[in-house]
Design goal:
The protein has 330 residues and is of the alpha+beta class. It folds into 2 domains: 119 residues, Gcn5-related N-acetyltransferase (GNAT) (Aminopeptidase, 3-Layer(aba) Sandwich); 172 residues, Gcn5-related N-acetyltransferase (GNAT) (Aminopeptidase), CATH 3.40.630.30. The chain has 10 helices and 14 strands.
Length: 330
């Protein structure tokens, strides 16, 4: 066995990736080779492990290159497990995107591999499923990957923070019907975006260059306006084929409580119709998303940007190391 690691789109064997993705899919899928080329081309980072010329393990990443990263595809052929190959792939990703909040959307069988490399199960991850769960296919409704609607952990808490209206009486002088929306980022005032994000997420000052760069590295946007005043925003990083990652859903506090956050998210998700849409929220946002239209993930993991956060804060974001649900036999 001679394992070689090849990173970068230019070093990817598309034909082998196609075969690999089909073999790794949790439900039977077929992938057109041109679609795979587009998929890889729209990814931020790809890395394969080859035994001589045979692809035996693969990892694919979407990122805004500033704050947030999502491992969308990870897999390894069974005969190559427990030899450190998968761990090497994951470590290369965490090194490449050091300082980011790094999420992994994975299968139950690989949870322990990620945990061994410093990941924790996320408490606040959701998949957008639309408004009618009766339309979900077996892969989405499978309890292996998702918790029941409205599920709460034993130490759940729903503080009202930022863009998470829970009984807030809005200060807005307009109705939701008067708000104008756009999915274009042309001529966006990023100073105003930065201000909304700073206020909506606890008043922490943000670097305008990070905000601008992260938005410019996104593929989808949704903005809300009261006349010419920007009052809400959201964005998504995506491969424009199979996977989207919603980020920075924020509403001017003066306009919360009139369903603008919900409208922005659903409009943004509509742009990515047909994709698997992932999002991870602040603990205060769980109540906002934990309802019909979203499914709470069981198999999402987080590699925290700040692993030394105090336990009283960490418990709102991650589950204890080794946490297992009663129906799991990992």
């Amino acid at each position: 066995m001679n394992i070689i690691y090849k990173e970068g789109k230019e070093n990817t064997d598309y034909s082998q990736v196609r075969t690999f993705l089909e073999a790794q899919a949790s439900v039977k899928k077929s992938f057109d080779e041109e679609a795979v080329k587009s998929l890889i081309g729209n990814s931020t980072y790809v890395l394969g492990a080859y035994d001589d010329e045979k692809l035996v393990a693969f990892i694919r990443v979407l990122s805004d290159e500033y704050e947030w990263t999502l491992i969308s595809d990870y897999g390894i052929f069974p005969e190559y497990e427990n030899q450190g190959i998968g761990e090497t792939l994951i470590n290369k990703v965490t090194d490449r995107f050091k300082g980011h909040e790094i999420f992994a959307y994975t299968s139950p069988e690989t949870i322990s591999v990620f945990e061994g490399q410093g990941f924790f199960r996320s408490k606040n991850a959701f998949t957008y499923s639309g408004t009618d769960d009766s339309e979900l296919d077996d892969s989405i409704s499978n309890s292996t990957y998702f918790l029941p609607l409205g599920y709460r952990y034993e130490n759940e808490f729903y503080p009202v923070v930022g863009d998470f209206p829970q009984g807030i009486k809005s200060k807005a002088t307009i109705s939701a019907e008067d708000v104008k929306y756009t999915d274009s980022a042309i001529n966006v005032d990023y100073n105003r975006v930065n201000e909304i994000l700073s206020v909506a997420f606890g008043g922490h000052e943000r670097d305008i260059n990070v905000t601008r760069g992260a938005f410019e590295n996104s593929q989808y946007y949704e903005f809300a306006f009261d006349k010419d005043k920007l009052i809400g925003c959201a964005r998504a990083v995506s491969d424009c084929k199979t996977q989207g990652f919603i980020l920075n859903v924020a509403i001017d506090p003066g306009y919360q409580g009139i369903h603008l956050g919900w409208n922005i998210v659903t409009k943004l998700a509509e742009q990515m119709k047909g994709q698997n849409i992932f999002l991870n929220t602040h603990p205060g946002g769980v109540g906002f998303y934990n309802r019909r239209g979203f499914r709470r993930n069981k198999t999402a993991l987080l590699y925290p940007a700040h692993p030394d956060m105090p336990p009283e804060i960490a418990k709102g974001f991650i589950l204890p190391a080794g946490y297992r649900f009663v129906d799991e036999t990992l």
